[in-house]
């Protein structure tokens, strides 16, 4: 009596999908190898690869800053999820203290005047190393200013120890129009959204602050 | 007999941190409100806010593309974590099939020739809606090309239904030097890293493909 081999080819019953799925045949502008030759695709890529980009092309709708930090990913996560640390690495958000609402903190943003209240909640996912800072000026009911972070092991993506931090803000419509002008610290105070065009600069400064502070504390400062 | 009030002020025992922590007093280049006035800070921000940026300034070390997609975050997550779908929305990665190693898939990348093998593992975190595609050409032992994704609820960050997808690649040193040239499909084949300078274009095309396909399937295509 012979025994059938127990090894099975894991791909034996795999059927590849069709080269062009039926419902995609008429979608305008899809760029796929089956329907756009390598030569055409590279020519198209060359047109998108401009020597220079305008500020709005890059930072009009989404503002992402990146930084390599020579500190362990878990240490970066722990630092970013502690609301007391905004005092150190941000330019102007200060003195977050607990409110009656669990997880909601109130502080000051001294960016444009001395009286502006800022509310904050930090949502972190320790497994994914994501950190979302949800905030708003003047009121804590709707936290629409969202600072989205991911911390990545630099070992994985750059082949060296440390962390990569990716930090994104999205152009929420409230930046263009304050939903609660009556809550401003004074009628003359400019709106936070008036500084949207400086978010790349402001967040680049702050992610550089973050790098300097964490590398100082971890003994890895250049 | 009177009863003490049970309400306690959650901030009553909160002591604000020092305005400038001792160890940060001598760190060069930290930009904080206590030591750099608003006028100086805004002047500095203005110098960083250039009218145009070169390609390398924006995409030299990190290539991030963003897209709004009018489909639910969970649907975007489900689509991105299914390796069969790379057949549809990528330009040239095709026919991923299981290997003997659980979770590791092998397919073809037709970007530069017809013979190049590509290996892939997809790590998703369903709570954080992160999706990391770890791949490599020619071998599946070290998956150093990492496609980092976050899916965000557009309700949270843009005040409307749908999703924002943030997709980042980092400039791993292997892009500059193939660690295994002996495994190439032919000695003449260019290296994947030779196309690093086209990653913005390539990934913009692919995230636009993703938007078109998902909005078609969700009945929200413009």
From TrEMBL, chains A, B:
Residues 1-14 have a biased composition (Low complexity). Residues 1-24 are annotated as: Disordered. It comes from the Bacteria. This is SRPBCC family protein. It comes from Streptomyces tubbatahanensis. The lineage of its organism: Bacteria, Bacillati, Actinomycetota, Actinomycetes, Kitasatosporales.
């Amino acid at each position: 009596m012979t025994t059938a081999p127990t090894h099975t080819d894991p791909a034996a019953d795999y059927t590849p999908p069709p080269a062009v799925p039926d419902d995609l045949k008429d979608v305008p502008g899809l760029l796929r190898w089956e329907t756009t030759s390598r030569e055409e695709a590279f020519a198209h890529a060359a047109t998108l690869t401009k020597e220079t980009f305008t500020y709005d092309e890059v930072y009009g709708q989404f503002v992402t800053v990146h930084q390599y930090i020579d500190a362990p990913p878990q240490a970066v996560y722990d630092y970013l999820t502690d609301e007391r640390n905004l005092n150190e690495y941000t330019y102007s958000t200060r003195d977050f203290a607990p409110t009656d609402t669990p997880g909601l903190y109130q502080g000051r943003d001294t960016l444009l005047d001395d009286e502006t209240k800022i509310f904050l909640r930090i949502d972190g996912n320790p497994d994914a190393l994501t950190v979302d800072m949800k905030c708003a000026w003047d009121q804590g009911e709707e936290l629409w200013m969202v600072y989205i972070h991911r911390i990545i092991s630099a070992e994985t993506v750059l082949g060296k120890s440390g962390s990569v931090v990716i930090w994104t803000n999205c152009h929420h419509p409230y930046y263009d129009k304050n939903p609660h002008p009556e809550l401003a610290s004074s009628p003359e105070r400019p709106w936070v959204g008036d500084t949207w065009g400086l978010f790349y600069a402001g967040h680049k400064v702050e992610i550089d602050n973050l790098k300097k502070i964490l590398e100082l504390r971890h003994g890895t400062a250049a």
